[in-house]
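INFO  loader      accepted 1 record
INFO  loader      residues=466
INFO  predictor   begin
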Amino acid sequence: MAPHTCSSNSCFQSSFTYKLKPTQFNNQHFPPNLLYRRSLTPPSASLKVAAPNARVEMGKKTREVIEDEAKFLVGTYARVPVVLERGKGCRLYDVEGNEYLDLSGGIAVNALGHGDDDWLKAVVEQAGVLTHTSNIYLTVPQVELAKSLVASSFADRVFFSNSGTEANEAAIKFSRKYQKHNSTEGKEPATEFIAFSNCFHGRTMGSVALTSKVQYRTPFEPVMPGVTFIEYGNAPAAVELIRQGKTAAVFVEPIQGEGGIYSATKEFLQSLRNACDETGTLLVFDEVQCGLGRTGFLWAHEAYGVFPDIMTLAKPLAGGLPIGAVLVTERVASSIKYGEHGSTFAGGPLICNAALAVLNKISNPNFLSDVSKKGLYFKELLKQKLGGNPHVKEIRGVGLIIGIDLDVPASPLVDACRNAGLLILTAGKGNVVRLVPPLIITEQEIEQATDILSQTIHILDANNSK
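INFO  predictor   done
INFO  writer      dumping tokens
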């Protein structure tokens, strides 16, 4: 598949991140906004939105699960008081029978929605044949998935992992090893890294060291040393540091998700590419959230015509099953030897067969074109319905990764939408509404979502006046 290009110098301008409302609860105390609609209006009917501040008693099933979660799980997540049970398409249903229109997509994971027929067929058929072997042995689905990823990208080879943070950990190791492998005799290999403001690359020790938010790093310090954070988009500062010759790799998201849906410009990425080429530094594109069709391009960087040495993938690739992938050029791959990295579970036949079904569907040019069209329609509707609201600073994004930048915290709006049957996320510093729905969302569902947002946004006035 030939890379897509974009005639615009800026290509995308978007922004997003996720961060669920920091709700805390125990067995006796529950969050104030527990209400949600019993059932979202069917697509064929006219939309009727429930009052966002209506109060509904928490169901017995929900209460029991919340109480057990508080007793038995490590408290790493500030969860909302919803216990999901099943889903189909862009709809989710909780244990009380309430229906939701899902614009969170499992944090940009469920690109084909819930229960896609082709994905389900691939999973069920493979589960009945072979699920796991370890990487001691070859399996057909793993090799076929690698072939498909190489055929549809800049890459020559693929390494599989189990998540986005694992993919970035592998990219860190590959970058260090590449520099060591290619350093001339007597010269110290480059070992440092550059990342950018508002970035998010994961929560394991290497990836968290590359993540700009201090609150993610501080509890676990000292983290991996040698990382410098530069303002996102500041090409001169990045180029100056790269030219010092100490940088093993530059990690950058073409579109920042967790950071607030901010897009790079072509000039910025091209400057990084040029400086890396001059010095032998590797350029790593983290497309864990923005890759695989989310922008209307198969890979987000295709719109810029700038290509990396390494690209990391994860979220949507296996349709909700755990996978990560590191796509590399031959010159990077040639520096890695047997036994220098690996994984027991990564690239298993069940996961890879599911990923093949996802990749085959999303890489269809008609599918990608529809994502672009729906994204433009969604942004236009949002501007019509919300653009005049004084709290809305900007509506930005590309394809189906859209951010609504507010001048107040977004959590009250997220809660109100959930009460009205719409699931959305926050991003950035908590002031950005992030919309990352399944890529199969229909125009009618886009209209329903926009109506709910427009009928609940007044909650920001009430919260801001307190």
